[in-house]
Amino acid sequence: MNKISGNKIFRSAILGLVPITLSFTTPANTATQSYPTVSESNPQLQLAQTTIGYCTVADPTGTPLNVRQKPNGKVIGSLKNGTIVALGETDGSEGEKWTKIIKPLQGYVWSDYLKDCRY
């Protein structure tokens, strides 16, 4: 829970050689406001990712490519061959055969079924 209280908040900064002091006044009886925490279990507050590249779906089986919630996880959707997907950044913990996508769905797909990737 985050609380803001008190009469004044002071911040100082030095710009070049000239010190500057900024003063912000807040009411003494400011209502307490709590903010939900960002976590993987709270999808409403997940941070937006920057696209790191694009690929085209090319599933050789001719069936739509499954998009999973996590590697080897629950199927949350599927994509037709030819669909362009935006790649999201990963930390490598999902394994080298899984790729995180962030558009048109957010989830994981099997890397071998992507082609013409551009980073």
Salient structural properties:
mainly beta, about 120 residues
Question: Could you characterize what this model shows?
Answer:
The protein is mostly beta strands. Helix content is 0%, strand content 41%. The chain is built from no helices and nine strands. Strands 8-7-6-3-9 form a five-stranded antiparallel β-sheet, with no helix packed on it. Strands 1-2 form a two-stranded antiparallel ribbon. It has a two-stranded antiparallel sheet with strand order 4-5. A hairpin with a 6-residue loop joins strand 4 and strand 5. It is globular, with a radius of gyration of 23 Å. The relative contact order is 0.18.
Helix content: under 10%
By secondary-structure content and strand pairing, the structural class works out as: mainly beta
Radius of gyration using CA atoms only: 23 Å
Task: Note poorly predicted spans.
Answer: 1-18, 22-26, 29-42
Through-space gap between termini: 40 Å
Average pLDDT across residues? Answer: 74
How many runs of DSSP E, i.e. beta strands?
9
Summed up, the helix count is 0
